[in-house]
Amino acid sequence: MGEFDLIRTHFWRGAAARPDGTGVLLGNGDDAALLAPAPGMALAVSTDMLVAGRHFLPDVDPEALGHKALAVNLSDLAAMGARPLACTLALALPQPDAAWLQGLARGLLALADAHGCALIGGDTTAGPLNLCLTVVGEVAPAQALRRDAARVGDDIWVSGTPGVARLGLALLRGEQALQGAGAEAARQQLLRPAPRVALGLALRGVAHAAADVSDGLLADLGHILVASGVAAELDVEALLQRAAANDALHALPLATRLGYVLAGGDDYELVFTAAPAHRAAVQAAAAQASTPVTRIGRVVAGVPAGHVLEPGASRVRLCDAEGQPYALPPGVALGGFDHFATMAP
Predict the structure, then answer these.
(1) Would the annotation count 220 as a binding residue?
(2) Residue 122 is labelled as binding a ligand
(3) 212 is in an annotated binding site
(4) Which region, left, alpha or beta, applies to residue 122 given φ > 0 means left and ψ of -120 to 50 means alpha?
(5) Is 31 marked as a binding-site residue?
(6) CB atoms within 10 A of CB 159
(7) Per the omega criterion (within 30 degrees of 0), is the bond before 311 cis?
(8) 48 among annotated binding-site residues
(9) pLDDT tens digits along 231-248
(10) How far apart (Å, rounded) are the C-alpha atoms in residues 234 and 219?
(11) Where Mg(2+) 4 is bound, by residue (predicted)?
(12) 340 domain residue, yes or no
């Protein structure tokens, strides 16, 4: 199967212009696509690469891989409060396998259709298995949820249940041997994350700053804190209470559970800040998006004393429900995901 046959067979998509003449005016099949955002909207653009052996195991189900490859990119748009518009796919694979490509395309295009995100082009070549997607969304500039917009006094919130995807990875690797509904939910969270696009859209005009949780809660909250020049007090007990929503995660030893929740990564949830006066609005946005959210701390000024964490080490102080320092038990791993570390088998 040649390159263009591969594209036509598995990834062909036409234009998807809206009735008002905006959107995708020209899709894949030409030298470039043509996009027209709605008047007054800015384009939000993000790229993520998934490499076999680094971000996924080579024997992963191709349909799940197609889903996740797009989901992790849509999660970036969600964190900006942007509505998906289009995406491109650059794919390197050792050799074309029709059944494998059919599964990959099915997973990717089903999620793309669910979010109105047109596949408008990309590239294919022979090489080590690698998927690189670029997504394009649109958002009014004044409503974008930027990392540098957190304010002292803001509440800190997180969606979903951080740590569940890290449990899914542990199950996949054989590090844990739990069974039941919670364990299966963890596997699905790892393999088929649900990008929080609806929540990001509902938080426009409500939240101040946001980031998606891809490398670990502390790491990604740290990006907000550094960009905004602030610090945080994080309620560990609120996070553990949220973790109890998954019985398998709750069953882990405390040190392991804390490591997964605080630094596990691959959750693709949203961590965001909002003024205390907007607590009801945050809950309303969560209900509108059918996504649970938990208030897990507050933004403070300066660099508070506390545990040394990475990144933005001195910007986070771990607290209990009363705001007192939380003593981590021995053996808690808080490093977060490192894209240049070796992936364990």
Answers:
(1) no
(2) yes
(3) yes
(4) left
(5) yes
(6) 27
(7) yes
(8) yes
(9) 999 999 999 999 999 999
(10) 13
(11) 31, 46, 76
(12) no
